Amino acid sequence: MSVKEGINIKEGWNSRFYEDFKIGDIYPHPLGRTVTKTDNIYMTLLTQNTNPIHFDDHFSKETEFGKPLVDSTFTVALVTGQSVTDISQNAMANLGWDEIRLPNPVFEGDTIYSYSKVLEKRESKSRPNVGIVKVKTCGYNQRGEVVITYKRNFMIYKKDHAPKKGHPLLEKVLENEEA
């Protein structure tokens, strides 16, 4: 990029590529997320989940939990999303989730954190530009209770084979910027 002298553009985090993964590595995902009542209601509506334990406070008070449970599909989506910046931002395709377990409930107001551990990696037999990585991801709450675990497989680009990312107009904007 040839822009005005004195401007030093630093690349941001571009996540990992196939070559960066090593079996046994653990990636703590950087962002926690507090689950709100609105999150729970939206997900329940989006998925057409009609179980009142997710959206009926009066009904939920009569259950052993005494309050609404967070829709488990939200938990899967949240923890998967938390992992993207570290493990699958450069993925070509998600191949699937296996062994999803929900050992403890998630409630509105819980903050969820997560990490992933690399279990396997191999070259793709059909696509020389990607590899296949298998991870185990674990989500836990602010009390350190595990609320979800699963294994996930995805195809991920090799370093020199990923589609180009970036800001194609940034050079033009910076060249026209007033000092």
Describe, in plain words, how this protein is organized in 3D.
The mean pLDDT is 90. Strand 5 and strand 6 form a beta hairpin. It is built from four helices and six strands, in the order ββαααββββα. With 179 residues, it is of the alpha+beta class. The two termini are 18 Å apart. Strands 1, 2, 3, 4, 5 and 6 form a six-stranded antiparallel β-sheet that branches. The radius of gyration is 21 Å and the shape is globular.
Blueprint of the fold:
Blueprint lengths: L25 E3 L4 E2 L2 H11 L9 H5 L10 H17 L2 E11 L9 E13 L6 E11 L5 E12 L12 H7 L3
Antiparallel strand pairs: 1-4, 2-4, 3-6, 4-5, 5-6
Give the overall silhouette. globular
Annotation, overall tally of beta strands: 6
Computed CA radius of gyration, to the nearest angstrom: 21 Å
Count every helix, treating DSSP H or I runs of 4 or more residues as helices: 4
Main sheet properties = 6 strands, antiparallel
Mean pLDDT: 90
H-E string: EEHHHEEEEH
**Share of residues in helices:** 10-25%
The proportion of residues in beta strands is 25-35%
Structural class: alpha+beta
